[in-house]
Design brief:
Strand content: 15-25%
Strand order of the largest sheet: 4-3-5-6-7-8-9-10
CATH class of the largest domain: Alpha Beta
CATH superfamily of the largest domain: Fructose-1,6-Bisphosphatase, subunit A, domain 1
Largest sheet: 8 strands, mixed
Bound molecules: 2,5-anhydro-1,6-di-O-phosphono-D-glucitol, manganese (II) ion
Shape: globular
Radius of gyration: 19 Å
CATH architecture of the largest domain: 2-Layer Sandwich
Number of strands: 17
Number of helices: 9
Distance between the termini: 54 Å
Order of helices and strands: HHEEHEEHEEHEEEEEHEHEEHEEEH
Length: 334
């Protein structure tokens, strides 16, 4: 067997990408990998444990019913961030407001993390892939004080690192620090993430489209036209139409498209005029990864990472995937 590169070794080797690196980002990425192993372990046995599966009995600020695993994952990540010392505050989907860390130890941290602790939570009970998505920024507030809202509301283009963990047929961690995208698979027998997908590149085009087509008649008619007159036709040079693939976990749909090529669309609808997906902890981190892998992420009109966020749980319409496919879909919008 060829020598495996563990995530930890990889992170240490890459520290030199950042001149004057102090090792804090490296430690933060390692902390994230530890929390993901804890969550992965819970996900893997969820069906057997009443305290892990099912609804928590609360609704979050977005009006969505929280699942027990949403809360377990949220706590697992918050706990490593609070005890790591690199992070001065966080924001997550499951907390109404951002959380400044008050301890002397955390106040010295230079980073903030925004995250979706469990994406695709409607898939938990039915054993379908789910994930964690995270975005890391350098704080803009003074070091030595707790994080502020301004630390959280930064454009995606200012991300220092972003990634996701997919609890799929295997558990994978995929991340970027702005020097390409690399993917690591968790080997459960040794409890280590090992480099399995070096230098990931999204094919410039593909043959799969992902959208909740139940929304087709309540969104921009250009999208219906794109799907019906483009995706669902046999295009010149092809032998069959595109394939529709919608898992309903953004992170899993994105991961498939990253590897195979494809497009994911969650547009504005008459029910959700701003779309459904959250800019700060769903769209921006995946946009950073997409761009680093040669793909594209837009609102249908503008680049996602240029948006100046106005609020923590802001939603945007989202088009992400293979560059040529996203450009093509945008041409249809009215
Ligand atoms: P979350 O579980 O974190 O709330 O996110 C769910 C998101 C996303 O993962 C998925 O693609 C989308 O919501 C599904 O929405 P529809 O059920 O409207 O298709
Ligand atoms: Mn989500
Ligand atoms: Mn979630």
């Amino acid at each position: 067997m060829a020598k495996l590169t563990t995530l930890h070794e990889f992170i240490m080797d890459r520290q030199g990408d950042f001149p004057y690196a102090t090792g804090e980002l490296s430690r933060l990425l390692s902390d994230i990998s530890v929390a993901s192993k804890v969550v992965s372990n819970d996900v893997r046995r969820a069906g057997l444990m009443d305290d892990i599966i099912g609804a928590q009995g609360n609704t979050n600020i977005q009006g969505e019913e929280q699942q027990k695993l949403d809360v377990i994952a949220d706590n697992a990540f918050i706990s490593v961030f609070k005890t790591g010392g690199e992070v001065c505050g966080i924001a997550s989907e499951e907390n109404d407001d951002f959380m400044p860390f008050e301890s002397e130890f955390s106040k010295g941290g230079k980073y903030v993390v925004l995250f979706d602790p469990l994406d695709g939570s409607s898939n938990i009970d039915v054993n379908v892939s789910i994930g964690t998505i995270f975005s890391i920024y350098r704080r803009v507030s003074e070091k030595g004080s707790p994080a502020t809202l301004a630390d959280m509301l930064q454009e995606g283009a200012k991300q220092i690192a972003a990634g996701y963990v997919l609890y799929g047929s295997s558990t994978m961690l995929v991340y970027t620090t702005g020097f390409g995208v690399n993917g690591f698979t968790l080997d459960p027998s040794i409890g280590e993430f090992c480099l399995s997908h070096p230098k990931m590149q999204m094919p410039t085009t593909g043959r799969m489209y992902a959208m909740n087509e139940g929304n087709i008649n309540i969104c921009d008619p250009g999208i219906k036209e794109y799907i019906e007159t483009y995706c669902q036709q046999i295009l010149e040079g092809a032998s069959k139409p595109y394939s529709g693939r919608y898992i309903g976990s953004l992170v899993a749909d994105f991961h498939r498209n990253l590897i195979k090529g494809g497009i994911y669309i969650y547009p504005s609808t008459t029910v959700d005029p701003d779309g459904r997906l959250r800019l700060l902890y769903e769209c921006n981190p995946l946009a950073f990864i997409a761009e680093q892998a040669g793909g594209l992420a837009t609102t249908g009109h503008d680049r996602v990472m240029d948006i100046v966020p106005k609020e923590l749980h802001e939603r945007i319409p989202f088009f992400i995937g293979s560059k040529e496919m996203v450009e093509q879909a945008m041409n249809f919008l009215k």
